[in-house]
Amino acid sequence: MSSIQTLPLNTLAGEPASLNEYAGKVLLLVNVASKCGFTPQYAGLEELYNKYKSQGFAVLGFPANDFGAQEPGSSEEIGEFCQKNYGVSFPMFEKIVVTGPEKNPLYAELIAAKPEAVNNGDKLRSGLTEFLASHNLPAPKDAPEVLWNFEKFLVGKTGEVIGRFASDVAPDDPRLIESIEKALAS
């Protein structure tokens, strides 16, 4: 069993949980936000969840307000937003910190296990750097930190982190789909 499986978490409803409840499944952990340019990825994540959940796959959403304060809502507001706008049915957890010194232990473990993300080149980082500078906000964190909202960590059936995909890798990206299918087949 992987160490990430036993870390204490809370569901969006405030109930104690852990990844151990998903033992034996392939998981896609995503730091999400309601007011981000990548927020429409909720629709694609829901499609992935529905397509593969019968095969032992789950998407797990972790709201985070780390990037541009793009997830300011309460758990109740986040849940209502996700349901109303995207019909999200995959498990969601309480808001956590995914970068910096207050980082949730789950994200510390995920990042340590997979310090580099598959991405579409430097366009995302340079675009974020420009955007943040134009709003007098600090530049994005350097690798291996999570760069922005909707970064995705793929966890295999035994709890090992087997993939990391940057925000600009959409849920329907062939590289992500292939990685999920390979993990499900193993």
Description:
The protein has helices spanning 41-52, 75-86, 105-113, 123-134, 174-185, and strands at residues 9-10, 16-17, 26-32, 57-63, 152-155, 161-165. With 186 residues, it is α+β, with helices and mostly antiparallel strands. It has a single domain (3-185), classed as Glutaredoxin, CATH 3.40.30. It is globular, with a radius of gyration of 15 Å. The model has no long low-confidence stretch (mean pLDDT 93).
Structure in a nutshell:
With 186 residues, this protein is an alpha+beta fold. 31% of the residues lie in helices and 15% in strands.
Say which CATH homologous superfamily is assigned. Answer: Glutaredoxin
Q: Number of helical runs?
A: 5
C-alpha Rg (nearest Å): 15 Å
Structural class of the secondary structure composition?
Answer: alpha+beta
Main pleated-sheet profile: 4 strands, mixed
**Physical arrangement of strands within the biggest beta sheet:** 4-3-5-6
Helix fraction by DSSP (H/I, runs of at least 4)? 25-40%
Write the layout of secondary structure elements.
Blueprint: E1 9-10, E2 16-17, E3 26-32, H1 41-52, E4 57-63, H2 75-86, H3 105-113, H4 123-134, E5 152-155, E6 161-165, H5 174-185
Parallel strand pairs: 3-4
Antiparallel strand pairs: 1-2, 3-5, 5-6
